[in-house]
Amino acid sequence: MEFVTQGGGEYALPWAVMLRPYRGENFTSNSFSTKRQIIINKYNTSNTPITNFHSTPNTETMMTERPMIRSFSNPQVKEVVRLRTGKHRRRREHFLIDGVREISRAIVSNIVIVRVYLEQGYFSKKTNNTNAEKNNLRELLQSLDQKQNCVWEVTPEVFPKMTFGERNEGVIAVAESPIRDLCDVTLPENPLLCVLEGIEKPGNIGAVFRSADGAGLDAVIVAQPETDLFNPGTVRASLGTVFPMQSAVTSNKEVLAWLRTRSLQIVAARCDGAVPHYLIDFTKPTVIVMGCESAGLSEQWSAPDILGVKIPMLGLADSLNISNAAAILFYEARRQRDQLSEK
């Protein structure tokens, strides 16, 4: 809606009025501001001068003309589909971000966005996103519109081809894969962090990042990875918390040496661990080490200076899903540290 201020009052001109051609007007300028002033003058039926005019953002794209993708054979559609594979992500050093919250958290975390694909009509269709999330996305897109050809719209017929499974939130971003090295991780005076060894499923890694974020861990280090850290499944399962969390991808040898030089208590979660998790003193500078569900931790994490811990299992199963086990250990550590700080 376009508003004009006239004689102390505010009057509205609809965008439809602002955009449609007018018969009888000698209008040749391509400038929207010029056209707007002509139309405002046309509707000004009094002699009172118009002192100001402004807009409120009640349209999907405002006046931004974004390029449109209409064909399944468009090279950008094919590129997004290829980026669903780890080999192509590694070769291109790009990855995909699905979802409003995830894209917003990536941008806030200074992840470099290469391109955003928005389903045509997104802001007017019903989604699982709140109005606040949609408004936040609108503002982010308007800032990205400053980069030439960064934001593209995709017809509703083509967009599902670019999405992951049945989860379609109407927006996808392509981003540059950030480099996460161990040397870049900085720890506070009394750190609490996690090492994940050989985890295969992206969803499990993402879920651990989400729990680590919730429990206030300082870093998550991925050792001997079986998938890339920014797999779309990891990003989605983490709800974008993989971006702000300090992280690194490295080998067992490197991370063990790094931990030992920092005199951290190394607590390894094992089915044959000697000590129940609730008897561990997590108030010390600690790293919690967890392995894949099928094979557990490798022998490198059975050294004498590493404390084996177990979560008691009273039924038939001998272990929990790694994301569930991680949440239990992280929040036990948080409970102990919060109690200590209250004393």
CATH architecture of the largest domain: 3-Layer(aba) Sandwich
Number of strands: 15
The CATH class of the largest domain: Alpha Beta
CATH superfamily descriptor of the largest domain: SPOUT methyltransferase, trefoil knot domain
Topology as H/E string?
EEHHEEHHEHEHEHEEHEHEHEEEEH
Structural class: alpha/beta
Q: Could you give the distance between the termini?
A: 57 Å
Low-pLDDT parts are 1-33, 50-63
Form type: elongated
Mean pLDDT, to the nearest integer, reads: 84
- As for the number of domains, it is 3
Q: Record the strand order, biggest sheet.
A: 11-10-9-14-12-15-13
Name the features.
disordered N terminus, alpha/beta, 343 residues, Alpha/beta knot, single chain, 7-stranded parallel β-sheet, 5-stranded mixed β-sheet, 60s Ribosomal Protein L30, Chain: A
Record the SSE blueprint.
Elements: E1 2-6, E2 9-13, H1 15-19, H2 32-43, E3 50-55, E4 68-69, H3 75-82, H4 86-92, E5 94-98, H5 100-108, E6 113-119, H6 131-144, E7 151-154, H7 159-162, E8 171-176, E9 192-197, H8 202-215, E10 219-223, H9 232-237, E11 247-250, H10 252-261, E12 265-269, E13 275-276, E14 286-291, E15 306-310, H11 322-342
Parallel strand pairs: 4-7, 6-7, 9-10, 9-14, 10-11, 12-14, 12-15, 13-15
Antiparallel strand pairs: 1-2, 1-3, 5-8, 6-8
Helix pairs in contact: 5-6, 8-11
Task: Compose a concise summary of this entry.
By secondary structure, the protein is of the alpha/beta class.
